[in-house]
Amino acid sequence: METVQIPDEDDVIPVPAAVTAIAAGDAIRPVWLNELGGITFELGEGDVRRFAKWAPPDVELDLTGEAERLRWAAAYSPVPRVLAEGADAEGRWLVTAGLPGRSAVARRWRSSPRLAVQAAGSGLRRLHEALPVDECPFDWSVASRKARSSRWSSTPDPALGPEPPIDRLVVCHGDPCVPNTLLLDDGTWSGHVDFDALGVADRWADLAVASMSLGWNYGDGWEGVFFEAYGIAPDPARIAFYRRLWDAT
Ligand SMILES: Nc1ncnc2c1ncn2[C@@H]1O[C@H](COP(=O)(O)OP(=O)(O)OP(=O)(O)O)[C@@H](O)[C@H]1O
Ligand SMILES: [Mg+2]
């Protein structure tokens, strides 16, 4: 997620047969290529606007885990509603209803990011306040992340250091990089997408990574605006720990 992965208009992206079938004659627009080789297509418009997230078999994208988490979170916060899941020999897919708005890294926000950064901060705060820790069946603790990470199990990082005491347990987004925040055209936060890692953890696990992703997408100098919009003073030790953990897992 370190680079912007919005396809250019003249990029030729092959459309998998399953996605053509799901579109059923509606317009198909590739909107996102992830670093692993997954592709998200936007299908149709208006009431039937929907998104098909597709991955070939060798790509590690947990679409089943994401669908489970979306079904759980939908009761509390604006997240994509699951419409369909499936698989064939070519790949797997998850189809969700379109949420209003566009990614916070759409071209207009990249050139003038202040409103997008503020929405990322205040939107993350709203997500953390809306999702109930006591009801959440998913875990994103430090131990669970190490256990699930193939990178960590092959080469544990001795420089990670000890886990800081929990500041506040919340249900974290799990991939709070700024492209996963959606905004209306006026800059209002409209929701989050991309929930395959959602789970209970210290809020700094999300805050550290969300703030780090601002630099990847908008350049330096936006972290203060982000933390102010969330309503928290930066905690350098926890930020450093959770950024190391992100890199190590
Ligand atoms: N239901 C939806 N409503 C609106 N936009 C959506 C929806 N689903 C996906 N998108 C758009 O498609 C993009 C890609 O979706 P998503 O982030 O889930 O894919 P990903 O491949 O897991 O991304 P990443 O590279 O962050 O891992 C999002 O940033 C968002 O702009
Ligand atoms: Mg994403």
TrEMBL record:
- Transmembrane stretches, by residue range? none
Q: Which UniProt keywords apply?
A: Antibiotic resistance, ATP-binding, Kinase, Nucleotide-binding, Transferase
All copies of the Aminoglycoside phosphotransferase domain together span 41-242
Taken from the record, one Pfam family name reads APH
Q: Does the record's keyword annotation contain Acetylation?
A: no
The answer to keyword Transcription regulation applying to this record is no
The family classification in the record reads:
Belongs to the aminoglycoside phosphotransferase family.
Supply the name of the protein.
Phosphotransferase
Organism for this UniProt entry: Frondihabitans sucicola
